[in-house]
Amino acid sequence: MTSQWDYFLQNLGEWHGSFTRMSPEGEEITDTPTLVTLEGLNDNKNVHQVVRYLPPDEASRDVVVDYDSLNRSILFFPNGAFSQGSMQWGSYSTFGGEFGLIDNGFGDGSRRLRMVELFDSSAKLDKVVLIREKLLDSNVPERPTLTVDSLLGEWQGEATTMYADLRNPTTFSSYLQVKQKDRDSIEQTLSFNNKNISSIARIEGSRLLFENSTLPSQILLLPDGASCNCPLKIELGHNFVLEMGWLVQPHVRQRIIRSYNEKGNWVSCTLVTEKKVV
């Protein structure tokens, strides 16, 4: 039986890229070139990771981590996609999640997109870090910056949910319709597991602001076809999600979602692959 460790090994390689730190509004603050090396050792029973930061006009800096097992706060999918992060949100503590997707299945597996979404001790979104990476010999170009137009349409999806308590995964179909309501807003309808969720977002530059939700949230439209979906501020008593999306092809999008319940407990992680049908 294939294990979480085997899924983790999909990420082995030398990933050249950058860590782009962004404000909560999606504005670039800093961009630091990086080299992330994940090397399998002892017949891949161990993994040696080196994150080398290569800031311009400064000395490089290495962060080294060795793995022989995986933390409970991380879940991997068969294609190497993953999410890790806080297992519990609580008042007056920092909180966040990291996401990773590889373009295998919809590319040659030579590009990887990661994202970190971080909240400060007052539960407000503090910063987003967009991490765009490629293997050394990759000739696959970066995807265009995500736009509202590229999201419009009807998307049919297949999803797999893995659970924090390690119960058996579940799979289901999803349907997402995004349409222009007027010049300054879009309307979104999401259907899955006999649930229908409709919402309206105000368009503000590269931000989609869902201000009328019980827990106001936003989607940032970012370079390389990426998107960041999360609350503007977390509040106890509300379910919420942290999400990264990636438009890997003009008509194919993947989303990886980390879900928390109304008590702030991490519940599950879902990988959705959607194809535009209209």
Supply the number of structural domains: 1
The name of the CATH topology is Lipocalin
- Name the CATH superfamily classification: Calycin beta-barrel core domain
- pLDDT averaged over residues: 96
Main beta sheet: 10 strands, antiparallel, barrel
CATH level-1 class: Mainly Beta
Distance between the termini: 38 Å
Tell how many strands the DSSP assignment holds. Answer: 19
What sequence of helices (H) and strands (E) makes up the elements? HEEEEEEEEEHEEEEEEEEEE
Shape: globular
Strands of the widest sheet, in order across it, are 10-11-12-13-14-15-16-17-18-19
Work out the helicity level: under 10%
CATH level-two architecture: Beta Barrel
In DSSP terms (H or I, runs of 4 or more residues), the helix count works out at 2
Structural class by secondary-structure content: mainly beta
Calculate Rg over CA atoms: 18 Å
Written description of the protein model:
The protein is mainly beta. The protein contains two helices and 19 strands. It has a single domain (4-276), classed as Calycin beta-barrel core domain (Lipocalin). A hairpin with a 2-residue loop joins strand 17 (240-249) and strand 18 (252-260). The longest helix is centred in the first third of the chain and has 5 residues, at 4-8. It starts with a helix and ends with a strand. The mean pLDDT is 96. Residues 142-277 form the Biogenesis factor required for ATP synthase 1-like C-terminal domain.
